[in-house]
Amino acid sequence: MPDLFRIVIVVVAALGVLQAGCSDDEESEISKVGVERGDAPARPPPGWKTVSNSFAGFTISAPRTWTAAGTRRRTVIRSDDRLVAVSISADRTARGRELSARRYARRTIRTVPNFVGIVGKRVSRIAGSRYESAVLTATGTVSPSNLSQRISVVIFRRPGRVIYGALVFRNAGVKPNFNEPTIQRMLRSFRAQPPER
Fold first, then answer.
1. The domain containing residue 56 runs over which residues?
2. What percentage of the chain has pLDDT greater than the value 90?
3. Is 89 within 8 Å of 164 (Cβ atoms)?
4. Is-contact 155 108, C-beta < 8 A?
5. Which pLDDT value is given to residue 20?
6. What pTM value is reported for the model?
7. What's 13's domain CATH number?
8. Is residue 139 a contact partner of residue 121, using CB atoms and an 8 Å limit?
9. Residue 119 half-sphere exposure toward CB, CA atoms < 13 A
10. How far apart are CA 27 and CA 24, in angstroms?
């Protein structure tokens, strides 16, 4: 079976929409919006941990057995069964401050390189999230793999300040609800932080 984690790394490396963290070009963009306030990290349930990215500016809870690999630009969390991978980053450019969560989600799904499949028409929200959110799901393949995947674009927006994007990759060959409660709990635990400069 192809490694879902490798597929995710290839895809997120090619994405231009989710500009993350505090690159040199974004320092002036960040100064335009002033100081961001942070939200306290969610308390992880028993058997979970808090994953943070101080440069992109967020925290999220994840099961303790799931791995997290971070860079200044993004964090990728992978399930221990290798059936789920989540890549999270931030966009503090003018586009990230101005677009609605729904529009940003639709733009993002169109940028997944070499994706062949069906994009859902319904845009939902993350129930229980404290942020404006949008979720758009697609099913298909991403070359060079023939592995069928469910890809969800999850957007969290702080109007006028930042958009956070999470790309959730799941093996489409398993039952649709498998791991879904865990993923939803993770996404509800997302908290925004000011970026480290």
1. 4-192
2. 57
3. yes
4. yes
5. 44
6. 0.84
7. 3.40.1000.10
8. no
9. 14
10. 6
**Residue in the block written with tokens 């979970």:** 48
CA distance 7 to 147: 9
Six-digit token pair at 106?
């639709």
Tokens 């677009």 correspond to what residue? 99
Q: What is the pLDDT of residues 99-139, one digit of tens each?
A: 999 999 999 888 888 888 999 999 999 999 999 999 999 99
Q: Is residue 197 part of a domain?
A: no
- Give the tokens for residue 190: 């997302």
Q: What six digits make up the tokens of 4?
A: 């879902």
Phi-psi region of 81 (alpha: psi -120 to 50; beta: other; left: phi over 0): alpha
Instruction: Please count the structural domains in the chain.
Output: 1
| 3-class secondary structure, 139 | strand
What is the C-alpha to C-alpha distance for residues 141 and 182, in angstroms, rounded to an integer? 23
